[in-house]
TrEMBL record:
InterPro entries: DNase_TatD-rel_CS (IPR018228), Metal_Hydrolase (IPR032466), TatD-like (IPR001130). This is Metal-dependent hydrolase. The keyword Hydrolase applies. One of its GO terms (molecular function) is hydrolase activity. Keywords: Hydrolase. Belongs to the metallo-dependent hydrolases superfamily. TatD-type hydrolase family. Pfam families: TatD_DNase. It comes from Yersinia intermedia.
């Protein structure tokens, strides 16, 4: 990974990185937010999007975004916790969206998950549809979770056309499935999976897709990178994901960094980060 970074004269001179998917409201970041953001900035990760997994976390994520300039919020209900979500949670989400500030940039993490026991697919689909409708009403993009459900998710997205589309995060499906999402106008999230040599399918997909359709992410503290198994993932490791992506693609690192930044800013309407030496 370091070899690619060494090709760039200075990370400060490089277009900065945005971790478009970091659960910064969970340990090991909670209680150590300022120090964690300094460490991220030292790796040139200057902005983070923090998605919610349920209504219980909405207020604390919004508070984090309000208190720390590098942080931006996404509010939504994760399909993995389908048994816990209540009808009142949708009303709460709608209320937060009506009163949104510029730090609330997406609806997420939402989607489908067919990997877990008792997935309750009809209920998942109904919750997804309701949240897609809210995103459309409030002109926000969506951050999408999809496990063993890419085809079903693509079908649901065809039924509700969003002007701002969104990103299928942590993508590990086939090239054809990724291309189907891209045809619908969606971005594909590139995460730590590509750091594993055995993940040949995903590495090949990320090498073949248009650079204009990719976003950088960590899913921290989940999805640790190769070499960090058993440790919490961290936002600064987005720089390592970038380094491996550079190894997989033909474009120059500077071009890849610039395009990833442009993609993230376009989708989430993020303001430029204030670049100061950490």
């Amino acid at each position: 990974m370091a070899a690619i970074i060494e090709q760039i004269p200075s990370l400060i001179d490089t277009p900065y990185f945005i971790d478009t998917h970091c659960h910064f409201d969970f340990p090991p970041f909670s209680g150590a937010e300022a120090a964690s953001l300094v460490t991220a900035a030292q790796a040139n990760v200057r902005q983070l999007i923090v998605p919610a997994v349920g209504a219980a976390y909405f207020s604390r994520i919004l508070a984090l975004a309000a208190n720390y300039p590098p942080l931006f919020a996404a509010l939504g209900m994760h399909p993995l916790y389908i048994a816990q979500h209540q009808e009142a949670d949708l009303a709460a989400l709608a209320s937060y969206l009506v009163n949104k500030t510029h730090k609330l940039v997406a609806v997420g993490e939402i989607g489908l998950d067919l990997y877990m026991d008792e997935p309750q697919l009809p209920r998942q689909l109904a919750l997804l549809q309701a949240q897609l409708t809210l995103a459309k009403q409030h002109d926000l993009p969506v951050i999408l979770h999809s496990r063993r459900s890419h085809d079903q998710l693509a079908s649901a997205l065809r039924k509700t056309v969003l002007p701002r589309t969104g990103v299928v995060h942590g993508f590990a499906g086939s090239l054809a499935q990724a291309q189907a999402f891209i045809r619908l106008g969606y971005y594909i999230g590139v995460g730590g999976t590509i750091t594993y040599a055995r993940a040949q399918k995903t590495r090949g997909v990320m090498a073949a897709l248009p650079l204009s359709s990719l976003l950088l992410e960590t899913d921290a503290p989940d999805m640790p990178l190769a070499g960090f198994q058993g440790q919490p993932n961290r936002p600064e490791r987005a720089a390592d994901v970038f380094s491996v992506l550079c190894e997989l693609r033909p474009e120059a690192p500077q071009q890849i960094a610039s395009q990833l930044l442009e993609n993230s800013q376009r989708l989430f309407r993020l303001p430029p980060a204030k670049i100061c030496p950490p």
